[in-house]
Amino acid sequence: MAAELDFSPPEIPEPTFMENVLRYGLFFGAIFQLICVLAIILPVPKSHKTDSDSLEPKNSETMKKPKAAAPQISKKPKKESKKKR
Description:
By secondary structure, the protein is mostly helical. The protein contains three helices and no strands.
């Protein structure tokens, strides 16, 4: 009776190429999500001068440019209501 039982581990087939791609893709996706969550939780101190400031010089004309009043085309004229008696 004991000779009939087979306690050897079951044969596990080798993973295919697509299974490997899926496994590593999910692994890297999880790491990317953790990095994004940590970027939200841990604030990065901002310096006074950024790279975009040094690349684009600021002119006083661009800073003080007045906003032009946009014409209100979408506004419909109000209809006159009838007087109630």
